[in-house]
Amino acid sequence: MYTKGEKLIPVALEQEMQTSYINYSMSVIVGRALPDVRDGLKPVHRRILYAMSELGLEHNKPYKKSARVVGEVLGKYHPHGDMAVYDALVRMVQDFSLRYTLVDGQGNFGSIDGDSAAAMRYTEARLDAIAEELLADIEKNTVNFRPNFDESLQEPTVLPSKIPNLLINGSSGIAVGMATNIPPHNLTEVVEGTKALIDDPDITIEKLMKYIPGPDFPTGGIIYGGAEVKNAYLTGRGRIRMRARAGVEPGKSGKESIIITEIPYMVNKAALIEQIAGLIQDKKLDGVTDVRDESDREGMRIVVELRRGENAQVLLNQLYKHTRMEETFGAIMLAIDHGKPVVMDLKRMLQCFIDHRKEIIYRRTRYDLEKAEQRAHILEGYKIALKNIDEVVNIIKKAENREAAKNKLISKFKLSEIQANAILDMRLYQLTGLEQDKIEKEYLDLIKKIEYYKSLLASEKKILGVIKDELDEISKQYGDSRRTEIIGQAEEFQVEDLIAREGCLITISHAGYIKRVPVATYKAQRRGGKGVSGLELKEEDFVEHLFTASTHDYILFFTNQGQVYWLKVYEIPQGGRLAKGKAIVNMISLKAGEKIAAMVRVEDFTKPMNIIMATKNGFVKKTELSEFANPRSSGIIAINIEEKDALIGVELTSGNDEIILVTKGGKSIRFPEEQCRPMGRNTRGVTGVRMASKDEVVCLTTVNDKATFLLVTERGYGKRSEFKDYRVQNRGGKGIIGLKVTPKNGSVVKACKVTDEDEAVLISTSGKMIRMCVKDISVIGRATQGVRLISLSNEEKLEDATVIIPEEGE
C-alpha cells in the first residue's frame, strides 16, 4: 500500500548507517560535548547562564532556588534530563572544579572529598560577578540568536564573553570519536598573554609562554616538566605531570609528619586518604603510624605521621609513587571553531578570542551608533520646536487632531515623522529654560559619541585598544596570584623540588651536632634583652657556628684543616628550638681533629664567582667557585694549611669586591680582592695582614658601602661603623684599629656587614640565643668600645653571631 504522493528511495543499509551515525556524531560534538572556542562554554552551560540572566539573578540580587533555574533551562532551552542540567550548574559553583566560579551558590554543592550536592530543591544560586562579564552587552545585538527547540523563543549561539573563559576555566568532555581536556589557567597571565598577541601578531608560542608559563589549577599543587607544557601549547596535546604539595614537620618525641596542603586537580581527597590508609594496612608503606585529615575552612591539611627515626623524604617519594599524590593531566586543546572541532595551539586559542571580541565590539559600536543617531535626530527636532515654540504651540492648538498637527509640523518645519511624533509627545515642563539647556547639552554629548563610534568602526587599531583596556579592567577586578607552582623539566626533577623554599638557621655545636631551624622560630627582641634558649646542650658543649641559608641551597663546609665538604640544606635534619641536632660526623666524613671552620651558601656553581679564604695566621687565598663543583664524600682540599695555623673564614666574591680582615685584638685591614690572584685548590695563599705575636685573625668579610660594619665582642658588646671609616690599604699591611679592645668588652668575636633591614642573631657558649633588629644597634666611630647587645653572666662568653634577612610575613 502506498500513500498518495509518497516516494520511496532505495538506500544501501551501510550508507544509511554511516550517514545517520555521522549526523548523530556531529550533533553530540557541536551541540553537547565540546566547548566553543569563543566563550569557552558548552551549550548546557551557556543556556544556564543565559537563563539565570533572564531571571534577573545578578550577583547583587537575591538567590533563587536551583530547582527554579533548572526548570527555566529545561522548559525554555535545554530539553534533556534535569540532573544533567543540575550537575552542570553544581560544577560551575565548585571552587575546586573551576578556577573562577561562574555561579554563586548557597547551600551544599558538594566537596573535594567527593560528597554529592544536596537536591536542587534545597540549594540556591545566582550569577557570580565574573559570569556577568560573559553576558555583558548581549542586549546590544552583539551575538546571533537562534530559535530554541520548539521555536517559541530565541537563544544566543554564543555569549559576548569579555573574559577568555576557555583558557581560564578549561573544559573537559567526551564526544563521539574525540575528547577535549583543556586545563585552567591564571586570569592575569592569560590577559597579559592576550595583550602581547594583540601588540605583536607574529609573536611565537615560546614568547607567549613568558606571559602564560603553564596551567594554574584551582587546587594548587606542583607541575613539573616544562617540556610537556610547551608541547601542549605548541601541538594542542601533552601530558602534564602534577604532584601534591607536601612538606615535613617535626612533631613530639622526635617524630616527623608529612603534611599535604595541596593535591592534584580533580583528585578526591577522601579517596586519597583511603588509598594511603590501604597502603599502610597492606604493609606497602612501612614507617607510617597514622594518617588523618585535619582540613578546615582555613585550608587543606592531611597529616601522615611517621615512626621515629624514619626518613621522611623516602616515604614522601613512596607516597608519590603509589598514590594519586602524583597524577597526569592529558591535555587535549580541542574546541569548536566556526562549527568545526579543531585541536588548537595556545596562540590560535588566544587569536580566536581576540577575533571574537573584535566582532563583539564592532557590533556593539554599530548598535550604539544607531541608537545615538536616532536620539540625535529626535533632539534636532526638539531644538527646532524650542526655537519656534510659539508657532509650534499655535499649530497644535489649532489642529483638529494629532494626525493633522503632525502633518502641519512636518510641512512647516521640514521635520521627519519621527521628529514630529516626538514633539507631540513632549511634556510641558520640557519647555522650561533648564530643560532646554539639558536638551542642548545632551545633543552635544551625542555628537561627540557619534564621532567616537564612527572613528572606532573605521579603525581596527582602536578596536584592539578597546579590547586591551577592557582586559586590563577585567584583570584588575578579578585577577589573582598563581596557585600552581611550575618547576623544571621532568628529567631535571630533584627531591628538593618537593621541599618548600624557606630561610633556615643552621647551628653546629662544639661537640659536633648540626641542625636547621626555621628563621621564624626566633622572634625579634629589643637590644639588650636576655634572649631565649636556642639549644639544650650538655654543660661542656656550646654552639660554635651559626649560619643562614635556604632549604634549596648548597652548603660548602670548610674545615679548620682546609678541607671542604658538600651538602644540600634540606639534607641537614630539621629540629625544634631546643633540639640537640644530629652528629655531623654521621653526615660528612670529618677526619680526626677536623672541625667546621666556615660554611658558604651556594645556589649555582656555574656562576663566575670566587671563594676567598683566610687563615688564623693572616693568609688569604682566592679560588674560582667552579673548582668546588664536584667534591667527594671524603672531602677535597680547599687550601693548604701550615702547622699551628687554621682556616677561620670563607667568603663568596664577584671578583671586584674589597676584603676586610679583622683580628682578635681589634685590628682591621681593607684591600681590593684584585690584589689576590686566583690560585688552584692545593695552594697556601698569600699574606693578607701582618699581626702582633699573640694576635690572630677572627673574621673575613667583604665590603658593601650601602651597608654598615658590625663588630661584636666576647662580653656581649658590639657596634656598627661606616665602611668609609676603614680606608683602603695594600694587602699585607698591619691594618688600623677597628674596635677598641678593653677588659670591659673583651676580644673581637665576629665582624660582618649589615643593613637596617637585617636582624642579628647572637649566641653564647651556654646556648643562649637572642635575635634583634640591626637598626637598634648604634652606629658609632671606628676606634670605640661599642654598646651592650646581650646580657651575659660572668661565666658566659659570646661565641658567635650571624645576620639574617627577615622572611616576608614575619
Describe the protein in words.
- With 810 residues, this protein is of the alpha+beta class.
- The protein folds into four domains: 41-160, Topoisomerase II, domain 5 (Alpha-Beta Complex); 245-324, Gyrase A, domain 2, CATH 3.30.1360.40; 350-478, Topoisomerase, domain 3 (Orthogonal Bundle); 501-804, Neuraminidase, CATH 2.120.10.
- It is 29% helix and 25% strand.
- It is built from 17 helices and 41 strands.
- The strands form twelve sheets. Strands 14-9-8-17 form a four-stranded mixed beta sheet. Strands 10-11-13-12 form a four-stranded antiparallel beta sheet, with helices on one face. The protein has a four-stranded antiparallel beta sheet with strand order 21-18-19-24, with no helix packed on it.
- Strand 30 (658-663) and strand 31 (667-672) form a beta hairpin.
- Helix 12 packs across helix 15 (417-424).
- The longest helix has 42 residues, at 346-387.
Compute the separation of the termini in Å. 91 Å
| CATH T-level fold name of the largest domain | Neuraminidase
Rough outline: elongated
Q: What's the number of extended β-strand segments?
A: 41
- β content, as a range? 25-35%
What are the segments in which pLDDT stays under 50 over at least 5 consecutive residues? 489-493
Number of domains: 4
Fourth CATH level, the homologous superfamily of the largest domain: DNA gyrase/topoisomerase IV, subunit A, C-terminal
The helix-and-strand class reads: alpha+beta
Helix content: 25-40%
CATH architectural group of the largest domain: 6 Propeller
Strand order of the largest sheet: 14-9-8-17
CATH class of the largest domain: Mainly Beta
Radius of gyration: 38 Å
Tally of helical segments = 17
Q: Mind describing the biggest β-sheet?
A: 4 strands, mixed
